[in-house]
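Q: Hi! First time doing this. I have a protein sequence and I read that you can turn it into a structure. Is that right? Here it is:
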Amino acid sequence: MDLDEAGAWLESPGRERVQIHGNCSLGRSLKSSVVLDSPKVSRRHAVINLQNVGEFWLIDLGSSNGTLLNKRRVHQPVRLCHLDQITIGDATFTFRQPEELSNEFRTTLAERTIRETEDLPCWLLVADIENFTPLSRSLVNDKLATLIGGWVSTCKEIIEEHQGMINKYLGDGFLAYWREDEKAAEDVAAVLAALKQVQTQKPRFRIALHFGLVAVGGMESMGEESLIGKEVNVVFRMEKLAGSLGIECLTSAAANDKLGILLPSHSIGSHELKGFEGKSEFFSC
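A: Yes, that's right. Below is the predicted 3D structure, encoded as structure tokens:
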């Protein structure tokens, strides 16, 4: 199967088909995958992101007039289903991912992921909004959508400006990563410094940073790479630990050693991560 002819696509009312290749951006900017020339559309309005195997998620990027999914405003990243209706400004698209193509697409992606997987040293960063459920109950839908969308857009821009990539959106958070190279530590340190400035605003969120060997597979050219292995689980458990300790930015010893003098930090002692034996040292930055 040719992956360029399968998977998922957007269909306009005129039946024009826009194939989705990994990340599909929508907005007024000429750099968007789908350019919408309307004053009701923001320059960087929304994005459809391919994550996991064959899952497509819709993310509003803090647009002024919002993104509608099945006539309801999107206020956090949401997974798309076949025949969902996406409305941006005056344009409405039908998301199509027929089950038979979806299953074949998933199988092909999974097979290529397994075949092309390699172990690579990576930086892993998880960011998660604090007390998201109470926050969502305290704000009306439009204000929540603007707040969360603006936060996602700001974090995404900071990470991509410093050569990182968001691999997975989690509803109230995300997982980003960098492949290790000679400049990665400087990029990660710059991102942490910028995100710590964002932490002074709403919504409040936690950061967990780890460094380790990760099984990376999939197709980077399509914007979809699978991150697999123990170290991925570690960084997610670290975020939970940060929440229990009330720490806004938590780094593992491995990440702290790599950062060195690039970012001030102090030890918070040794702690055990749920699901892992033994204690490890962690740092607050």
